What we know:
The termini are far apart. This protein folds into two domains: 2-148, Immunoglobulin-like, CATH 2.60.40; 152-213, no CATH class. By secondary structure, it is mainly beta. It is elongated and about 85 Å long. It has one helix at 2-15; strands at 41-47, 52-54, 64-73, 80-88, 95-98, 106-108, 114-116, 125-133, 137-148, 152-155, 171-176, 188-189, 192-193, 200-204, 208-213.
Amino acid sequence: MCLNRVAQARKSTRNFRKETCSSNIFPPSSGCHGNQGTPTVRTIRAMSGDTVTLPASYDVSLPVIAVTWNKLEGPESESTRVGVYMYSPRANGSLSMSLGPLKGRATLHLNGSLTVSDVSVKDEGQYVMTTLVDGLGQEETYVYLEVIVPPTVTVGLQIPLKVPVNTSVTLNCTVSKKRAMVKKVMWLKDGRSVPSHIKRRELEDTSHFRYCTA
């Protein structure tokens, strides 16, 4: 009986045919009938290289057959599910393993939350935890992981820069902002904001900030 249930759980990670419907649990294309709606998706942000936890929970008092985490790959209309973690408490000695792109980097908590170490840009995307309950069907929790890459600052002049007294000089710096949440670019002099008499000009394009003073 246990082997059959484990096989059923493994099959569910590939097919994910919904057996029951709940409000805000299954996406409209899930094939469920009755009360359908857009799934609630929680967004979690993490810096590249950090460890992050994707929050989730389920009722541990229920006869759970398996808990699986999958990552949705491809366009939303035709996305596929890639297994990243599987847990089956009813297997012989229980079954718990990280899979695919998170193999060796994911840990499942007792409440169903998933911790991922050494996060990279490739890990960004939508994840779904599916709980398979004996006699009740499946419930799902959706989490979107957004990975932030720290900006890179480049100064275009030789340091230290030597100039004659009473002459004008332009200082240029480039702040790469791709995949980085750059809200403000500042120049500091001796740890303080530059004096008001120094002119500042900020140029922005689609790939970087150029911040100049003269």
